[in-house]
Design brief:
By secondary structure, the chain is an alpha/beta fold. Helix content is 52%, strand content 11%. Strands 1, 2, 3, 4, 5, 6 and 7 form a seven-stranded mixed β-sheet that branches. A hairpin with a 2-residue loop joins strand 4 and strand 5. Helix 3 crosses helix 4. The N and C termini lie far apart (59 Å).
């Protein structure tokens, strides 16, 4: 009976392993799983700030407000432990224990907010418990709980709207921008492995000849991820060559640049820079 119930799951797992390792065996590059970024406290703190801000819908707030929220959550978690609230120890370990453990062990790739998904779930569980408790008390507590729920809902809706506006994961717009300036094909420099597959898929979908390189071969474009949400720089340098940001309208098809860049336009093959904001093409 057990074998009959588990057989479909076992077959599915075997198919997944076959697909993953079969593709790795067939690929000239072998098994490749993302990038390896060494540990740094700055990237860890930045990832925690992004995790907390996106969890509670506070991405529009200044960074110092996020620090205040983090301190308030730690105090709330300690108070929950002292009151022996349900899930209190889980919240404490996930919110504070996990980041401290990763920092102590200097685990790589901790600059990625998704690595703290467990902490994000613990934050939501803690807030749910606090708000539910407040709703069972007096009128003032109920008003504060209702205000907190309202602010959370407004913040989350705002963050979702911003993600929709940025068109997360839509690299087609970047390919469209490259095609406008280089209709016959182009070579694009990438800094790491992460955007390679999406770029190849987008180029194949558009039937556009695109060559990717990560070395110092001459490239007409540079593809830059703005995963930290920072502003796009006007210029950047790769292998001694200066690349200039191409200014185009956001969303939809890109249009021709509105201005000329005299320092670089004088060259026979001008260098151009594509910025991708928060993992999504933003058609700059």
């Amino acid at each position: 009976m057990t074998a009959r119930l588990m057989l479909p799951s076992v077959v599915a797992v075997m198919l997944v392993f076959t697909l993953v390792f079969g593709a790795a065996a067939a690929s000239p590059g072998g098994m490749q799983v993302g990038d390896y970024v060494p540990f740094s406290f700055a990237s860890l703190v930045s990832a925690l700030q992004v995790m907390l801000a996106t969890t509670v819908g506070a991405s529009a707030l200044p960074r110092w407000w996020i620090a205040v929220l983090a301190l308030a959550l730690c105090v709330a978690a300690m108070a929950a432990v002292a009151q022996r609230r349900p899930m209190a120890w889980l919240a404490m370990l996930a919110i504070a224990g996990l980041p401290i453990a990763l920092a102590t062990l200097h685990v790589a790739n901790t600059g990625m907010p998704r690595y703290f998904l467990l902490s994000s779930v613990a934050v939501l569980l803690l807030l749910t418990d606090l708000i539910a408790t407040a709703l069972t008390k007096g009128p003032r507590s109920r008003m504060l709980a209702a205000l907190a729920l309202t602010l959370l809902a407004i913040g989350m809706v705002h963050d979702i709207a911003q993600d929709i506006k940025r068109r997360r994961g839509d690299i087609d717009a970047a390919i469209a921008g490259v095609r406008i300036e280089a209709p016959g094909g182009a070579r694009v420099h990438v800094d790491h492995l992460q955007p390679v597959a999406p770029l190849r898929v987008a180029a194949a979908t558009a039937r556009y000849p695109l060559a990717l390189t990560s070395d110092c071969r001459p490239a007409q474009f540079v593809f830059v991820d703005l995963d930290d949400g920072g502003a796009a720089m006007a210029t950047t340098r790769r292998c001694g060559r200066v690349y200039t940001l191409r200014t185009m309208r956001r969303r939809g098809c890109c249009r021709e640049p509105t201005g000329r860049f005299t320092d670089y336009r004088a060259r026979a093959t001008p260098c151009r820079l594509i910025h991708i904001e928060a993992g999504a093409s933003s058609c700059h």
